[in-house]
Amino acid sequence: MTETPIWFQYPNFQWDKKHAIIIGGGIAGAQMAWHLCQAGWQVTLIERHHKLALEASGNPAGVISPKLTAKQSLGEDFYTQSFIYTLVQLDKLKQLGHKIMMDNCGVLQLTHNSREEKRWEALKKRNLPANFMQLLNEDETIKAAGINLNPKHPYKSCYFPNGGWIQPASFVRALVDHPHCKIITHTKALKLLKSKNNWLVYNQENQLLCQSEVAIIANGKDLLSFKQTKFLPGMPVAGQTSTVTASKLSTNLKTVIGHEGYLTPAFSCPSTDSKSITKHVFGATFERNNSDPLLNTASDHKNFNRLQQYLPEFTRNLTDISSAHTAVRMTTPDRFPYAGALPDKDFYKSNYSDLHQGKKWKQYPLPKYQTGLFILGGLGSRGLITSGFCANALCNLLENKVASEQTQQVLKNTHPARFIIKRLRTQN
Ligand SMILES: Cc1cc2nc3c(=O)[nH]c(=O)nc-3n(C[C@H](O)[C@H](O)[C@H](O)COP(=O)(O)OP(=O)(O)OC[C@H]3O[C@@H](n4cnc5c(N)ncnc54)[C@H](O)[C@@H]3O)c2cc1C
User: Is the CB of 377 under 6 A from ligand 1?
Assistant: First the structure.
């Protein structure tokens, strides 16, 4: 592996106490809490709602699947490693007796357009292991799906036998179930102030709520709402999922289907009158720069029209469509999350200002950070798999256990100062 440039290097951290405050009770905050508790830390997790996992991590079912590119790439490696990491972690949680609502039923990514066809052809040359990914022809795809999804235009597919779907809230509940994880709900972290060694967290009444040497911002769509994070580029992308009551035919679907969006096999969803109904979850819409979406029927129509377009046979006789969930994915310009220490941006700007002149990086000073302040966010559309992998790297960083090549690579890809450096490199 190439050496980490000086501006992405981290110092050795020394903490008086292994205690951290985590802001945000979605999958990012919960993963951070789990990893730190496993490493012997005490955690205080702050959530503004009355319970955890109500925003992006409140979707009734999300997909657990890697993301392959035609050629191997940094991005593909990151998603593949994240996927494998999450499968191992989920197994561990289940073995410990946690009840997680999920199904490793496999995921079929259909060749629904010419780009997917090209990707399928390119992947053929790569001989990936069959327990990770299989390239299926049209007949094999129908057999794996359990339904002929589109008789006029049968698809080939990439099949991920260990993929599936998960209810994120049940994942979050399992992750925070630890005696060293204290949860404070109904409480918004309004601002953060530094006093000597500690980060002071103020609540919505502007009263001091708690303090600690280490604070981790993991608050989803509001990642940029703090003075300390404002400089980070990020874009909110709203999304809605929908449900449809299963039909006799549709219950034959055996795997998750990926096209432009996704569709789960039928599973039992609790309904308001405490009976359970067998439904499919499908979606999701993408609305850039919308950070405050409301559930709406237009999005359900959009989701269903897409299903009809790609899976006409499947949608026959399906009529009872309803809105499932709407929320915001926080995205970054390069699609890698933010997982690391928050940089001192003024130090970066004044000390690395001549980067564009091409000086050797070894001639620059070590960077400065907002000591004790960390971030995990910008998880975009794949947070259910990337959050654990990134939380592991961030926990290793806090523990000064960064020797492994994999951890170093994750910390470099997700470094919160990477866009400052990019700008300094390209400015005239
Ligand atoms: C429609 C949709 C479909 C998706 N499908 C998939 C999928 O199939 N597979 C997949 O891997 N990913 C999927 N994702 C992405 C995934 O859900 C997200 O990446 C992930 O949930 C983000 O987790 P998070 O913890 O960063 O944010 P969130 O889950 O939004 O959690 C942030 C939490 O912080 C709290 N908070 C915010 N500000 C404060 C504050 N100041 N004080 C206290 N609390 C605060 C919020 O209330 C919230 O609970 C989907 C997302 C959406 C919206």
Answer: yes
Band the pLDDT of 360: cuts 50, 70, 90: confident
Q: What ligand 1 atom has the least distance to the C-alpha of 386?
A: 11
CA of 187 to the centre of ligand 1 (A): 17
CATH number of domain containing 137: 3.30.9.10
Ligand 1 closest atom vs CA 241: 1
Residue 209 domain boundaries: 6-56+170-234+333-426
Distances (CA, A) of 96 to 92, 162, 177, 396: 6, 20, 11, 23
Residue 320 belongs to some domain of the structure? yes
Strand partners, 287: 238
d(CA 198, CA 206): 17
Q: Is the CB of 61 under 6 A from ligand 1?
A: no
- Report the separation in Å between the CA atom of 399 and the middle of ligand 1, taken as the mean of its atom positions: 26
End position of a domain, from candidates 327, 343, 360? 327
Q: pLDDT per residue over 141-180, tens digit each?
A: 999 999 998 888 899 999 999 999 999 999 999 999 999 9
CA distance 219 to 27: 10
pTM comes to 0.97
> Is there a contact between 281 and 243 (Cβ–Cβ < 8 Å)?
yes
Q: How far is the CA of 24 from the centre of ligand 1 (A)?
A: 9
* Dist. CA 267 → ligand 1 center (Å): 22
Q: Which amino acid is at 45?
A: L
Q: Both 208 and 176 in a single domain?
A: yes
